[in-house]
Amino acid sequence: MAKAVIETYGCTLNRADSDIIEGMLKSEGMEAESKKYAESDNADYVIINTCTVKRPTEQRILDRIRKVSVGNARLVVTGCMASANRDRILAVAPRASIVTTSNVHRIADAIEELGARDRVDYEGYMRNDKLEYFSPGGSVIARIPISEGCLSNCSFCETKFARGALNSYSENLILKAIEISVGKGAKEIELTSQDVGAYGLDKKTNIGELLSGIADMEGDFRIRVGMLNPEHLPKYIDTLLMGLEDKRIYRFLHLPLQSASNKVLKDMDRRYTIEQFCSHVAEIRNKIGDISIETDMIVGYPTETDGDFQESLAFIRELRPAFTNVSRFGVRPHTKASRLKQISNMRIKNRSSEMSRIARSIQKEDLSRLVGKTESILITEQNDRSIIGRDDCYRIVALNREICNARLGERLNARIIGNTSVCLLGTAL
Ligand code: SF4
Fold it and tell me: Is the pLDDT of residue 42 over 80?
């Protein structure tokens, strides 16, 4: 039996694509598994699912592609770099086969064709519903892609070139994928896409409607709603807030702001203002109460002045996001921002350190308010030292593995005994 190993980089949607690839290959009778690093020597095929969001990650992936390409296994490259930057791949691995993101459901055909050919190219953009090829992996967390692409044109983003225009998958297939995943033991469902916030806007529906469809389902599971570009919130915030009333949906929203300067937001082609963002967050907090708002901030965008940066710092201090992902601006090929005069790396580095320091201190302070409290948590991960659970606001609660033997998928109450800037420390009751 031929063996394939899948090595995945990037976001939850990429990991969901790898789950689909693994399911497709297994359904074709192949041995297939996902691994952090694929050893080329004990596999017949190595599939590298690439990401192209940040240059350092891209360079690391190209080094892997170069290394794997000189091994025995046949190399197939998919993911955003395969769709947006295939030349870079073929420059380091001329015999690599390319399968673009909207062709991952044809991965088995590509491998079959490699039986007779040196390399294959499954290019172009296909508008299909990937959930037709969905098969649950059986783990406690199921990643369910609900759409691909988006409706925006952010000036710094290369993913747009890889994933294209918005293509929302059918609600029936999403509900079916949730049902069969829960049937196979999933306890946490991650709804994922480039922009979950744009879901359904190409089909006269939206994420709020989808959540109310999920609310009608039976079953003991939690739902994590993926990243929402704040641009679309006005279109469905009421139905979204109603959807969040279902106790199975984590009280957690990931709303990437990127900058708190309206001038920089305009330059980034982000179609909302800081005032709109803050009023949405206030409305959400008023309606839901205790909810985790995570955000993303880019520092060092070419047109960001010291004053703009100070506005972003003031925003973090005032809004106190539960978690802030701070990214240093990096030039991405083909993007509008790549044609602008760039800020020095040193200045970007300094801004990134300052914002990260402030964000971490706020996170630590706010998490410390839960020390002494009891949280109901779902166990979803484990590592050498800890059993990891998520509370109702999707906050991480780490339990010491030496004294806790809770199983994946188990629900339990934990007393919070401490915290760091990124998680709570607990003991099972
Ligand atoms: S919403 Fe913007 S950042 Fe996100 S994938 Fe679309 S263009 Fe890129």
Answer: no
Report how far apart, in Å, the C-alpha atoms of 100 and of each of 65, 76, 104 are: 16, 10, 7
371-396 per-residue burial string, b: 16 or more CB within 10 A, e: under 16: eeeebebbbbbbeeebbbbbbbbbbb
With the C-alpha atoms ordered 354, 360, 363, 366, is the resulting torsion angle positive or negative?
A: negative
Compute the radius of gyration of the chain from its Cα atoms: 22
CA of 43 to the centre of ligand 1 (A): 35
Q: Do domains 3-122 and 129-250 have the same CATH topology?
A: no
Beta strands in 123-164 (DSSP E): 141-145, 147-148
CA of 227, closest atom in ligand 1: 4
Give the model's pLDDT for residue 38: 67
Q: Is the pLDDT of residue 39 over 70?
A: no
Q: How far is the CA of 55 from the centre of ligand 1 (A)?
A: 17
pLDDT tens digits along 135-150? 888 899 999 999 999 9
Residue 222, SS3 per DSSP: strand
Average pLDDT (34-62) is 87
Superfamily of domain 374-428: Nucleic acid-binding proteins (2.40.50.140)
Tell me the pLDDT band of 41, cut-offs 50, 70 and 90.
low
Residue having the nearest C-alpha atom to atom 2 of ligand 1: 154
Q: Does domain 3-122 have CATH number 2.130.10.10?
A: no
Q: How far is the CA of 233 from the centre of ligand 1 (A)?
A: 15
Q: Tell me the residue type at 5.
A: V
Rounded-to-integer distance, Cα 159 and Cα 418, Å: 38
Give tens-digit pLDDT for 322-368: 999 999 999 999 899 999 999 999 999 999 999 999 999 999 999 99
CA of 153 to the centre of ligand 1 (A): 6
Contact predicate 237/267, CB 8 Å: no
Task: Verify whether ligand 1 is closer than 6 Å to residue 195 (CB atom).
Answer: yes
CA dist., res. 57 & res. 60, Å (int): 5
